[in-house]
Amino acid sequence: MLSSSSSSESSSDEESTQPQSQPEPQSSSPQARHRKSRPLQRIPQRPPSPSPPPKKPPSPHPPPPKSQPTPTPPPTTKKPGKNALSIVLDVMRGVFGILLVTALASYFITGDSISFNYRPWWSRPARLRHWITGPILLTPTQLSLYNGTDPTLPIYLAINSTIYDVSASPHTYGPTGSYHFFAGRDATRAYVTGCFSTDLTPDIRGVEEMFMPLDDPDEEEQISSRERKLRREKERRVAREMVKKSVGGWEKFFRNGKGGVYFEVGRVVDADEGEWGEVRELCENAQKGRKKRGEVKKEEGRGGRPAGVGA
């Protein structure tokens, strides 16, 4: 009894839960019938979008600055320039042009030289030969052979024991020259006094007398002998300096004179000063050039030479 009642109740419940089918309305159009006959299409569902990653907490340190990209310079077009060879050629052309203009100007001015009559020492064979061989040492006897009479030997002269080559002026110091008497010897005294006939010797003792004034008898009586002696010594010192200056001027002339054609070649050695004998007296020409002391004082008062210096 119980089982039958329970089954009946369950069947009644199922019937109540099932939906009651309602009668479909009938459509009269063929399109409706066609839609009804098509099966239902299932609409695909989109997958769920992924959740965004969790945000990182801000860093306590500031981020490093981003490196800026180095800007690339725009391409430049190189201008065509001169190479090293063309520059050298330009310089050589400029130098050659300057030398040509200078040579023409020199020839126009001098008439026979393209270098204004200047020749460096290394361009002269005689000086170059002496530079290679070095200085020479000659005795007075050996020096006398270089007087220009032998065409195979140069022409030498000496001043103050220094020998100079004057071969560049054979018309002056050669056998037919006006100053041939200076060749082949040391004639220092004649260069100072100007007495070429009597003073062709290296002995210059007493030459300072020509630069000392003549004594005035009236004035000598007014001063003591000691004052005269001191004054005489002072005048002699000044006169010797004048002689030294005169000899030095001639040495400078022959060392670099005539545009460098004269030059020093050596020294005179073994000169016997004992053969000179006593001190020579002044030659007539040098003696005439001396002035009296009164004349010297007058010149000194007019701003002329100092006292103690003669002609």
Set down the secondary structure blueprint:
Elements: H1 2-17, H2 30-37, H3 84-110, H4 125-133, E1 136-138, H5 140-143, E2 156-159, E3 162-165, H6 170-173, H7 188-193, H8 217-220, H9 225-256, E4 263-268, H10 284-288, H11 293-301
Parallel strand pairs: 1-4
Antiparallel strand pairs: 2-3, 3-4
Which regions are unreliable across 5 or more consecutive residues at pLDDT < 50?
1-27, 307-311
Strand % is: 5-15%
**Alpha-beta classification:** mainly alpha
Q: Main sheet?
A: 4 strands, mixed
Biggest β-sheet: strands ordered side by side in the sheet: 1-4-3-2
Number of helical segments? 11
Number of strands: 4
Report the average pLDDT across residues. 77
Oligomer state equals single chain
**CA gyration radius, whole angstroms:** 64 Å
Task: Explain what you see.
- The chain has eleven helices and four strands, in the order H-H-H-H-E-H-E-E-H-H-H-H-E-H-H.
- Strand 2 (156-159) and strand 3 (162-165) form a beta hairpin.
- Strands 1-4-3-2 form a four-stranded mixed beta sheet.
- With 311 residues, it is mainly alpha-helical.
Descriptive keywords:
311 residues, mainly alpha, 4 strands, disordered N terminus
Question: Nutshell version of this structure?
Answer:
The chain is mostly helical and 311 residues long. The chain is built from 11 helices and 4 strands. The termini are far apart.
